[in-house]
Amino acid sequence: MTGVLVASAACRVAPKLRRTRAMTSPRPFTPRSVRDGMAALYGAAGAEAARLRGAQLNAVVRLTPFTMVANVGSASVVLWVFRGAVPPGMWLWWLVILAMSGLATFRWWRMRGQVLERASRRALHHATLQAALLSGAWAFMLIWFPAASTPQQLALATLVTGMLGAGTFVLASLPWACMAYAAIYMFASTSALWLAGDPLYAGVAVLLMLYTPTVVLGALFSWHKGTAQFHAEAQAVQRERLLAVLLQDFEQHAGEALWEFGRDGCISHPSSRLAELLETAETEFRAQPLVSLIARRSPAAAVALQRALDAGRPFRDLQLTLDCPSGPRHLKLNGKCLLDEEGRLQGWRGVMADATDSVEGERRLRELASTDSLTGLANRLTLRQALSEQLREGRRGALLSIDLDRFKAVNDSLGHSAGDELLKLVAERLRACLRPGDLIARLGGDEFAVLMGHAEPGPDAGALAERLIKALARPFELQERHQQVGASVGVALLDGSVAGVDELLVQADTALYDAKAAGRGRHTVYSDALGERSRRRLDIEHGLRHAIAQGELALHWQPKVHIRDWQIVGAEALMRWQHPTLGPISPLEFIPVAEQCGLIGALGQLGLREACRAAAGPLAGLRVSVNVSALQLKEERFVDSVREALASCALPATMLELEITESVFIDNAQGALSQLHALHALGVQIALDDFGTGYSSLAYLRRFPFDTLKIDRAFVNEVLLREDARIIVRTIAQMATALGMSTVCEGVESAQQLAAVSQAGCEQIQGYLVSKPRTLAEFVQLRQDWHRLPPITAQLH
């Protein structure tokens, strides 16, 4: 009975695609959801709506042969019921039904085997019209119902009831056609029952009026459910296509490769990228297990992978190093178990990534950060870590501080290149004098240090010091000249009496100064009776307590200037002390004393409060930087004290920057990280000072999001002299930019240095080129006059 409308609608498939609003997820069956769904089906003009209309028409098309047979058969039954006395016009009615059914069957036959991908709105409206015409043709038959006999009426009523229910559900995927079909049937049937004049038929008419909406409601529910299923299937197909595209793109362009194998251990879906990573032909993946293929490149890597698989748990970042024909290759693997419905292991799936570049890059950066770029010796931070470890383990030994006696004369007479060559020769001679297990480091300039491990305090250290002095006393051949340099050595013993790294360094320096003062070319072992330096330290300690209480300490300010804009963007607070009798004392002298005698907390709080007060007042608009000692970060209330200092001045946390050095991570890395994360949560900016002088920074850059990296002045001092120094500065600047951090170069003292660090990609500078540290009043005046001062960057063009 519905073949006409289906065949007609199928011929009107929409050929054009239009953009449409995405369909929403399935909604509950409510009047509003039905209304919105019908509006989307009959009113939307997009591709998805067209596909939905095509699917709805297809649901009816496949039933065309059966419905046409039902139409012809039902019409023939009507003729048979009225056999012998066929009313006038019934044969004509039967021919109309037969013609409509034949036309629909012909159209279905012509389109058989085709699936409607999309249909237009016009096609659905045409289908509604066809449904109305078909139901109208059948409704016309009911004009013979009032005059029919009781058996004939019974047959017609049964036929109409069945056709009403069956036709409504056949047309359920087309709501308007369904409702039009049912409404015409209901109106014609109730009219026929009314014209029959039998009071009993009035009750039947009421039942029919109740039955018809119920059937329509059921059909609409079926349509609503089918529409929801269509959307769900469409979304699933879209997700599958998207996943396929992403996986294909992943395989073709990503640095990673997917791998999967079953119980036999052989790769089930080999890819060119996987073959490239393992440098193995794709055909070998199905012939040998993955573990066996890796064993060919590295038995140790295969053992590590097999151990991870045997554990039966997902693993991440399993690093394997393979000896491939192209060279060592570092791989990182992530893996996940594949289980069946009963939880039994069926195989593994995961991702393999090439980490060769990152591993080698990290190794090179670690070497750069942990060694002196000129001599290849360890640097200051490496020495500090070694000292800290030896002190923590309680091993006996000695620290020798070495200073060349006449190095400046060589630099001044022969130039810096000759001086650099001399430092390299000195490093070679020092290496030749050491025992296995000893560490030699260059601290900067012409200063070196040797850490002796497992030495007998006194005799062994003294003997090594004499060997070093004799070795460096021999002339060096530089530029076809013999240069006599010589060295002095200060010795500090690790005999259990040293409290920390800084104290040991001070002792070695104190002994070195005594050796140089005694005539040079000799060594001195530190003792408590050395004299002036120790007494000065005690004077500084006692004076420092009084200075904090009486306000003798003051902050001086050094500006930070943005290179590109040449504007003052910040100021670093530097503590200054004018002692009543000793005169001005450098922070390099009294800060270590404050740390050793437990005054660093009070000193730090004083500086923090004064800096916040200045930032909220005369320096408003500038971010102020305050140096923080490693000992301050160990205090439990340090974060609270920062919060209180900010609140007391109503200073936004973002306008305060705390500068730390890498030494904070040596003794208590986890505690320092916890404190820094808490400060960062407040909004306080964190800067890593003296970056590039120790390898610990590389590890902790990944564990803590620093805001600023301050490049150590040692690299700036050599940026004009050595290519490797320029490379290091440029590498640090690029790394900071990639990690979203800003960079500040310390100690910029010339326009040439400014040009070099600017070309390296650094953002800000700080140094005597811009300004020496000033009092607060002087700094405020500098800031006011800044716009009248010609920018130094103008000299670079």
TrEMBL record:
Residues 537-787 form the EAL domain. The keyword Nucleotidyltransferase does not apply. The lineage of its organism: Bacteria, Pseudomonadati, Pseudomonadota, Betaproteobacteria, Burkholderiales. It comes from Ideonella azotifigens. Gene3D superfamilies: 3.30.70.270, EAL domain (3.20.20.450), PAS domain (3.30.450.20). The chain crosses the membrane at residues 60-82, 88-106, 127-147, 159-188, 200-223. Keywords: Membrane, Transmembrane, Transmembrane helix. Residues 395-528 form the GGDEF domain. This is EAL domain-containing protein. The keyword Membrane applies.
